[in-house]
Predict the 3D structure of the following.
Amino acid sequence: MATSKTTMDFLLDQLSGLGEVSTRKMFGEYCLYLAGKPIALVCDDQLFLKPTDAGLGLISKVTEGYPYPGAKPYFLVTADLWEDREWLGQLIQVTANALPQPNSKPNSKPKPRKKNV
């Protein structure tokens, strides 16, 4: 089951006060970014937040979940908690602050292949 556009619209509306929030659709699911930094996955209409000590300090009862088979555990933030816009925004912000900047990929051209003769 893929994440619905309605779910993403609601989540983005709740996080609109944070500024540079964006998503990228991947295989029917979404990656959530804050200022270009990937911080969460939204899979099957559920929010899976990258685990950090800062995020742990804001979650009263941690539930771990796996966004897809073979994934590392993430914090599962249930939809009923999304209603508290201020708390959710704070959770997303402290998580983003605790995560390192993503590695930038060099913008290089592929090397030409040699033909076997």
User: Anything to note?
Assistant: The chain has a mean pLDDT of 88. Residues 85-98 form the longest helix (14 residues). The helical segments are 5-14, 53-58, 85-98. Strands lie at 21-26, 29-34, 37-43, 46-49, 64-65, 74-77.
